[in-house]
Design brief:
Elements lengths: L4 E4 L5 H13 L3 E11 L5 E11 L3 E8 L5 E4 L6 E4 L9 E3 L19 H12 L7 E6 L2 E9 L7 E9 L4 E8 L5 E12 L15 H9 L1
Helix pairs in contact: 1-2
């Protein structure tokens, strides 16, 4: 089943494509990206989450919300392996400590917000194209991206099959967009990774909430 796919103007096997993305990510020590998660409801409405996702090896994660909780900051892990939470607004001086699987840190899909991670996504794309695939995969070239269309086991929901479209940036060979559909083609969720910045030398202090000014300083460095 590994080699069953359709290709249009993309001289890559599934094996070659996965190797390129894995190699590209192996060369990433840290990155920052603006994540836009849009969830579509059956009544035609949608909900959007926007946040700045920062990662540093081995497993430092910081999430700065832009909406709907503008100003809230999450840092993984704290010294006890939990999530340090700094609320927004007048409560910013409070520090909460939650388990990573706390329901407050999950979206409607069951995915934890810290799992909006390029490394995990690359692994899941690999599963979607191999052992968790439910039919042929389609790989095409589309405006600077390699587009993958495949029906596979859902990454975060048990006993659910999802039609995925993954867009891989051909310059970086890293994921840029994920779209999730029902098997009959109804869009359920889209995730985009914008303004991706790689290997900027993020400091350890940026991932410590006790550093009161680090968000301002790090964002100033981007301008």
């Amino acid at each position: 089943m590994m080699g069953t796919y359709a290709s249009t103007q993309v001289p890559l096997s599934i094996e070659s494509l996965l190797k390129k993305t894995e190699t590209a990510y192996a060369n990433v020590n840290d990155y920052r990206t603006r994540v836009d998660v849009r969830t579509f409801k059956r009544d035609g409405s949608s909900e959007t989450e926007k946040f700045l996702y920062s990662f540093k090896r081995p497993k430092w994660i910081r999430i700065d919300f832009e909406s709907p909780h503008a100003g809230m900051i999450l840092v993984y892990p704290d010294k006890n392996g939990k999530v340090a939470v700094q609320p927004a607004g007048l409560a910013h001086f409070l520090k909460l400590h939650l388990a990573p699987d706390n329901r407050l840190l999950k979206g409607s899909s069951g995915q934890r917000i810290d799992q909006t991670d390029l490394g995990l996504l690359i692994k899941n794309i690999g599963h979607s194209l191999t052992d968790e695939r439910r039919g042929p995969a389609e790989i095409t070239d589309e405006n600077g991206y390699v587009r993958i269309r495949v029906l596979a086991a859902d990454h975060f929901r048990e006993d659910v099959v999802t039609l995925y479209r993954f867009f891989i940036d051909k310059k970086l060979w890293l994921p840029a967009i994920v779209e999730e559909f029902t098997p009959d083609g109804s869009l359920e969720r889209s995730i985009s990774f914008g303004d991706l910045r790689i290997n900027n030398g993020l400091s350890d202090s940026f991932f410590q909430l006790d550093e009161a000014t680090n968000r301002i300083n790090e964002r100033s460095d981007e301008k």
